[in-house]
Specification:
With 307 residues, the protein is of the alpha/beta class. It folds into two domains: 149 residues, Rossmann fold, CATH 3.40.50.10740; 141 residues, LD-carboxypeptidase A C-terminal domain-like (Glucose Oxidase, domain 1), CATH 3.50.30. It is built from ten helices and 14 strands. The strands form two sheets. Strands 6-14-13-8-9-10-11-7 form an eight-stranded mixed β-sheet. Strands 2-1-3-4-5-12 form a six-stranded mixed β-sheet, with helices on both faces. The longest helix has 14 residues.
Length: 307
C-alpha cells in the first residue's frame, strides 16, 4: 500500500495531460489547500495556458514529464494530484532516456498518484511498475463532487478507511476476488499493442467512460477481448458510462451502453457489477488500483481488502 498522509502533509499538483479550466481548477485547489500543504513549486504554470500547435496539452511532453518526475522524486511530496485528464498522458509513456517517467521511484517511495480518465494510462504503467495508484477525482472535479466522495478520497489517502461500494446493480451474479485494475475504457483500448498492453488475468477490472456511444464501446471492448487483455479475469465492475447512449444532440440509439457492455463482457462468464459511482458522472468515489478487492455482484458490494 502507499504511505498514508496526515492532514497538512505536502502534496504536489501537476497537469500531465490537458490544461484545466481556471475556475473549476482553482475551486478544487482551494479544497486541497484547506487540508494539505500544496507545494506551489509544482503548481503547473500551464494548467490554463493554451498555445499552438498543441492547444489541448498543458505543456510540451518534456515539460509535463519533467514536472511528474520532479514530484515523484521530491522527498517532501506525499501524494501527487492530477489537475485534469483530457488527453496527453499516453504521449509521456512513449518518452525514453532522461525524459522517461521514473515509475519505479513512484513505487519505491509509496507515493499515490490521484486521477482518472486520461490518467488511466499513467495508472496502468504505475501499477505495472509496482505502485498503488488511486483512480479518483482530478483537481478540477473536486469542488463539484458530493462532500461524501471527497471524504472517501481523504480517508483513503490518510489510511483511516478503505472504500466500500454498496447498492450496485449486476449483469452477472457471483463473487470474485483479485487485484483491482483498469479505469477508462478508451485509454485501455488505446494501450493495446503498446508496452503497456493491458493483461488483467486474475484481476477485478474496473471500466468507465464518457461520450462513447454503444457501437464505439463495442469496438473498444472487442479490441480488449481480441488482444487477450481480459483473458482469465476474475470479475468486472462497471462505473459510470455518462452520455454513452446517444450522440450529442441525437436521439438515443436502439441499444443502450449497458446492453452492449453486457453482451460483450457476458461471454467471459465472470461476475459483473454495474452502476458503480465512479467516473465522469455526478459522483466519483476513489478506489485504489493494484490492491486486493472482494466483489459480490449479486449483493451489490465491492470491498477493498486490508493488506
Amino acid at each position: 500500500m502507499f504511505r498514508a498522509l496526515s492532514p497538512g502533509a505536502s502534496v504536489a499538483v501537476i497537469a500531465p495531460a490537458s490544461h484545466a479550466p481556471t475556475e473549476s481548477f482553482e475551486a478544487g485547489l482551494a479544497l486541497l489547500a484547506d487540508r494539505y500543504d500544496v507545494l506551489r513549486g509544482y503548481y503547473p504554470n500551464r494548467v490554463s495556458r493554451q498555445e499552438p500547435p498543441f492547444a489541448y496539452l498543458a505543456g510540451s511532453d518534456a515539460e509535463r514529464a519533467a514536472a511528474l518526475n520532479a514530484a515523484i522524486r521530491d522527498p517532501q511530496v506525499g501524494a501527487i494530484f492530477c489537475a485534469r485528464g483530457g488527453y496527453g498522458a499516453t504521449r509521456l509513456l512513449a518518452l525514453s532516456g532522461g525524459q522517461a517517467l521514473d515509475l519505479p521511484a513512484l513505487a519505491a517511495r509509496g507515493v499515490p498518484l490521484v486521477g482518472f480518465s486520461d490518467i488511466t494510462a499513467l495508472h496502468q504503467a504505475a501499477v505495472t511498475a509496482g505502485a498503488i495508484s488511486i483512480h479518483g477525482p482530478v483537481v478540477n472535479q473536486l469542488a463539484v463532487l458530493p462532500e461524501g466522495d471527497r471524504e472517501v478520497l481523504f480517508a483513503l489517502l490518510e489510511g483511516r478507511a478503505m472504500p466500500r461500494l454498496e447498492g450496485l446493480g449486476y449483469l452477472v451474479g457471483g463473487r470474485a476476488r483479485g487485484r483491482l485494475r483498469g479505469g477508462n475504457l478508451t485509454l485501455l483500448a488505446a494501450l493495446c499493442g503498446t508496452p503497456q498492453q493491458p493483461r488483467f488475468a486474475g484481476c477485478v477490472v474496473l471500466l468507465e467512460d464518457v461520450g462513447e456511444v454503444p457501437y464505439r464501446l463495442d469496438r473498444m471492448l472487442t479490441q480488449l477481448l481480441a488482444t487477450g487483455a481480459l483473458d482469465d479475469i476474475a470479475g468486472v465492475v462497471l462505473g459510470d458510462f455518462a452520455s454513452c447512449d446517444a450522440e450529442q444532440g441525437q436521439p438515443p440509439t436502439p441499444i443502450t451502453a449497458l446492453e452492449v457492455l453486457g453482451e460483450r463482457l457476458g461471454r467471459l462468464q465472470v461476475p459483473i457489477a454495474s452502476g458503480a459511482p465512479v467516473g465522469h458522472g455526478a459522483r466519483n468515489v476513489a478506489l485504489p488500483l493494484g490492491v486486493e478487492v472482494a466483489l459480490d455482484a449479486q449483493a451489490g458490494t465491492l470491498e477493498v481488502l486490508p493488506g
